[in-house]
């Protein structure tokens, strides 16, 4: 019974404030990159069960149909707000982006795959290192990533802090919160909503 209640609590943290989510769009001008890719921005947390739903059911399709084809530029803003261990995952993600950006998507999916069905602390350096070791990288690059995310005031630490500052500045109240081509996705759990917006933005750009 305790596990059920605690899981419910962590889920509520992700969505309870959605009703009072800001009406303004902080990304209304974030439509395209300089090379014409549609911007996809997702605010979330590796510990958020609702974010995991998007990561497992939506993002693989987006990756195959748009990101790999160079049509969409994907950014995950790690809010790191669901416990002290969340920030470890955020720092590690930024370290991967710093030294092996082409491997970030795989790292993110590996992290969400480790998410348990409870609120306990699970993002540890041991767990993160295991996911880094799964990446198709040389030993020296893996060691650089591990060293960076574990070193205080490193580039990845500063980037993780900027993510936290960004979601607070933009008054993001809900995880996940998704923006595509400058427009907020009202229902982030339906793939058709993503496809419709992306295709519309791509058509407008062509």
From TrEMBL:
Name the UniProt key words of this record, in alphabetical order.
Disulfide bond, Oxidoreductase, Redox-active center, Signal
Q: Which Pfam families match?
A: Thioredoxin_4
Gene Ontology MF terms: oxidoreductase activity
Residue stretches making up the Thioredoxin-like fold domain: 35-200
Q: Which PROSITE patterns match?
A: PROKAR_LIPOPROTEIN (PS51257)
Highest taxon, organism lineage: Bacteria
Family the UniProt entry places it in: Belongs to the thioredoxin family. DsbA subfamily.
Know the name of this protein?
DsbA family protein
């Amino acid at each position: 019974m305790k596990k059920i209640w605690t899981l419910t609590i962590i889920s509520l943290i992700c969505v309870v404030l959605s009703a009072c989510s800001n009406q303004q769009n902080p990304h209304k001008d974030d439509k395209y990159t300089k090379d014409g890719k549609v911007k996809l921005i997702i605010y979330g947390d590796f510990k958020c069960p609702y974010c995991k739903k998007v990561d497992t059911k939506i993002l693989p399709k987006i990756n195959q149909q748009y990101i790999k084809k160079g049509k969409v530029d994907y950014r995950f803003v790690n809010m790191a707000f669901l416990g002290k261990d969340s920030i470890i995952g955020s720092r590690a993600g930024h370290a991967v982006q710093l030294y092996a950006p082409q491997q970030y998507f795989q790292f993110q999916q590996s992290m969400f795959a480790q998410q348990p069905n409870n609120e306990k602390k699970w993002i540890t350096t041991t767990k993160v290192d295991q996911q880094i070791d799964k990446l198709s990288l040389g030993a020296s690059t893996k060691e650089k990533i591990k060293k960076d995310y574990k070193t205080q005031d490193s580039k990845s630490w500063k980037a993780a802090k900027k993510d936290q500052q960004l979601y607070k500045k933009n008054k993001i109240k809900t995880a996940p919160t998704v923006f595509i081509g400058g427009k907020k996705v009202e229902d982030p759990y339906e793939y058709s909503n993503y496809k419709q917006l992306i295709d519309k933005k791509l058509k407008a750009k062509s």
